[in-house]
Amino acid sequence: MRSGFVAMTVLAFGLSAPGAAVAQTPTMETSVTFLVPVNLTQLSPDLEKIRVNCIILSDTVLNTWYTSPPAGIPIPKVEAVVTSGRVVTTLSVMVYVVSVPPTAIGQQSNYQCSIDGYSKSLQRWGFFSATATDAAFRLTPAPGPINGQITW
């Protein structure tokens, strides 16, 4: 099995103030969209779909990894269907950021995107590994997480 899960692009990053509340609330809401190229071939026939998850790791900025998003805001993951043992696409993963305090502007936060697959027979998600116990999740080379930094 082959995998390709490499460099990605931070597509959109914008701050928007929640209207008149700006004067009263020193935080801003925003979202960050990650474009994640996926090139997985020779996947197990047992895999039904794959999922890309992206998180922003920050002590200053609150995002959906730590809090529940408001109604209508997507959770920071996107799925794609496996067809004939392949998924070759670019997935757009939007991470809703609940709060960006003014002190965060100009500061950096780490992000991480990872990929896992869903097994039809096992009826569960699992991370890919070259040594996975379940053959459905065995990939060589296994796609590791994508790590990076963004500046607010």
Give the tally of β-strands.
9
CATH architecture: Sandwich
How many domain regions? 1
Main sheet? 5 strands, antiparallel
Q: What portion of residues is helical? A: under 10%
What does this entry look like structurally?
With 152 residues, the protein is mostly beta strands. It has one domain: Sandwich (Immunoglobulin-like), CATH 2.60.40. The protein is built from no helices and nine strands. The chain has strands spanning 9-16, 28-40, 47-57, 62-63, 77-81, 87-100, 108-119, 124-127, 146-151. Strands 3, 5, 7, 8 and 9 form a five-stranded antiparallel sheet that branches. It has a four-stranded antiparallel sheet with strand order 1-2-6-4, with no helix packed on it. Strand 7 (108-119) and strand 8 form a beta hairpin.
Topology readout:
Elements: E1 9-16, E2 28-40, E3 47-57, E4 62-63, E5 77-81, E6 87-100, E7 108-119, E8 124-127, E9 146-151
Antiparallel strand pairs: 1-2, 2-6, 3-5, 3-7, 4-6, 7-8, 7-9
Give a quick precis of the structure.
This protein is an all-beta fold and 152 residues long. It has strands at 9-16, 28-40, 47-57, 62-63, 77-81, 87-100, 108-119, 124-127, 146-151.
Q: What are the salient characteristics of this protein?
A:
0% helix; elongated; mainly beta; 9 strands; 152 residues; 4-stranded antiparallel β-sheet; Immunoglobulin-like; 5-stranded antiparallel β-sheet
